[in-house]
User: Which sequence fits this backbone?
């Protein structure tokens, strides 16, 4: 008996010692799988960027054809893999055992659908235009946009259906497929940003040089299309789809962000009881944020009017100076109001003490990384502009406005980042969590909201009772006191929540207009000519074309984060 007990104890000890080794080996293989997929994706992305550099820096026709052929092959591979992955997940019942409810909120999937529709329209316009040049252009210029339409449709459906999945089998193959899909989206984004920046740079070069005889940049990437003429009826000009490039750019960025979260969730095991609430939160319709809605819509409408005046006034010198100065005034006032709103929100956060959620969350980590990374581009272009203004003549009206505008851009981005990141980490009020024993889960959040209304009604009913005991230590008196204290906390919480919803909505609409203006052609730091005179056209064009796309992306991503905070408030 003693020998058998000794053997059983030794066996149990040996099993307990092997468990950490097994867990460690699984974690190590997880890192190896991520490393393998990262190497695959980085090589695809770097090769794509190399081809793009050759196309846009050298006027060699073969490079453009090769790039389109390579991109078409990658699109076919991605479409095939997504179809296989969806079929595989449907066929194997044990392929998806866990789902991340925090991934793919409805506003993000809705944004992908919205921008995907704009991308499809742009590709159809490209196909219609390419058909007119079919006699003197390679067929790949028709095939590639057609494949891209199929890619957008399949990818949008794939992301809508599978964005929350945590795949548990064939993990490494899934990681490599997702990373290939991610890098293809980034490659398409690089091509779209480069082509749009090149188009705007050519237009600005004509404006500064006064050159009305422009090169035919109407078709293709190389810009050397003088030998190719439209053989059939050409309905659409190239400028018809240049205005749709912002939709293509944002679509690929939204898709890449969602695919990255899916890549992080491969092999992840999530407890369904710990999922947090996403989507339209409780109490959204209980308070209509009129102040935030009116102020935000005012900024949005005035910004659209200013943008139209700015575009129209570029043809006339006097009108251009007046529209540009007015445009700058609008930016300065709007950025000042946005900075003030962010500051008020941060102060409310400080007064409303809550616990912070420090658990691992791929979606929140990605949001923070993208916000802070994209902000660096705005910091850089603002500092370049400030140095140019101070070093030249800061006493003129446009120089002063440019200097103030650059300073406010830095201040507003800094305050907004602090405001958004802290808001994403905040848990429900401590007194609510302690009194109800609930966390911010998809089910308990709704139950908590219903409990708040019940407690307030009960507390008001208690105050209305006339015949109550007068002894202070009586249980009913103590119960009434606790109810009254909790009711006071709840009413304060509801007032703060109403204020925060106004701030969220105002900042959301303001960031939307600050995305629309540069995305659709407003190059305010170029049109003044002040930075161009100081740095030269080439250097300032490089600085602007590198920094501005990240600034545009920051505004859209900040608006998406603010919409999430609004729905969660």
Assistant:
């Amino acid at each position: 008996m003693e020998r058998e007990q000794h053997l059983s104890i030794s066996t149990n000890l040996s099993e307990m010692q092997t468990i950490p080794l097994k867990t460690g080996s699984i974690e190590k293989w997880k890192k190896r799988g991520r490393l393998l997929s990262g190497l695959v994706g980085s090589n695809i992305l770097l090769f794509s960027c190399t081809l793009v550099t050759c196309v846009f820096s050298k006027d060699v026709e073969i490079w453009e054809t090769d790039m389109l052929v390579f991109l078409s092959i990658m699109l076919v591979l991605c479409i095939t893999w997504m179809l296989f992955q969806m079929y595989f997940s449907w066929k194997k019942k044990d392929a998806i055992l866990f789902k991340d409810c925090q991934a793919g909120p409805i506003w993000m999937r809705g944004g992908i659908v919205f921008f995907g529709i704009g991308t499809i329209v742009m590709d159809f316009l490209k196909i219609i235009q390419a058909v007119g040049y079919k006699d003197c252009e390679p067929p790949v210029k028709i095939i590639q946009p057609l494949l891209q339409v199929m890619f957008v449709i399949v990818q949008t459906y794939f992301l809508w259906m599978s964005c929350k999945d945590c795949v548990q089998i064939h993990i490494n193959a899934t990681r490599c497929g997702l990373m290939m899909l991610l890098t293809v989206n980034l490659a398409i984004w690089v091509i779209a940003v480069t082509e749009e920046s090149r188009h705007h740079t050519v237009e600005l070069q004509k404006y500064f040089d006064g050159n009305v005889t422009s090169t035919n940049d109407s078709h293709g990437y190389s810009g050397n299309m003088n030998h190719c003429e439209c053989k059939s009826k050409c309905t659409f000009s190239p400028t018809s789809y240049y205005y749709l490039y912002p939709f293509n750019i944002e679509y690929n960025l939204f898709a890449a962000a969602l695919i990255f979260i899916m890549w992080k969730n491969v092999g992840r095991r999530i407890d369904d009881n710990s999922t947090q609430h996403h989507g339209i939160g409780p109490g959204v319709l209980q308070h209509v944020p009129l102040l935030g809605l009116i102020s935000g819509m005012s900024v949005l409408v005035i910004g659209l009017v200013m943008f139209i005046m700015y575009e129209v006034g570029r043809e006339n010198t006097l009108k251009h100076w007046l529209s540009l100065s007015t445009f700058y005034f609008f930016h300065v006032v709007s950025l000042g109001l946005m900075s003030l709103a962010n500051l008020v929100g941060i102060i409310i956060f400080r007064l409303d003490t809550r616990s912070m959620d420090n658990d691992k969350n791929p979606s929140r980590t990605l949001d923070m990384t993208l916000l802070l990374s994209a902000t660096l581009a705005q910091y850089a272009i603002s500092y370049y502009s400030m140095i140019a203004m101070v070093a030249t003549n800061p006493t003129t009206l446009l120089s002063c406005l440019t200097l103030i505008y650059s300073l406010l851009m830095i201040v507003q981005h800094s305050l907004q980042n602090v405001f958004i990141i802290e808001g994403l980490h905040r848990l429900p009020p401590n007194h609510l969590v302690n009194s109800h024993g609930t966390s911010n889960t998809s089910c308990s959040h709704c139950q908590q909201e219903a409990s708040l209304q019940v407690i307030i009604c009960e507390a008001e009913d208690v105050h209305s009772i006339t015949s109550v005991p007068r002894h202070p230590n009586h249980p009913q008196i103590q119960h009434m006191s606790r109810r009254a204290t909790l009711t006071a906390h709840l009413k304060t919480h509801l007032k703060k929540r109403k204020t925060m919803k106004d701030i969220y909505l105002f900042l959301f609409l303001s960031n939307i207009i600050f995305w629309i203006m540069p995305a659709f052609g407003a190059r305010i730091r170029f049109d003044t000519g002040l930075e161009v005179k100081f740095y030269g056209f080439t250097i300032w064009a490089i600085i602007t074309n590198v920094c501005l796309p990240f600034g545009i992306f920051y505004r859209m991503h900040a608006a998406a984060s603010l919409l999430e905070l609004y729905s969660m408030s």
Notes: Residues 290-429+500-568 form one domain.
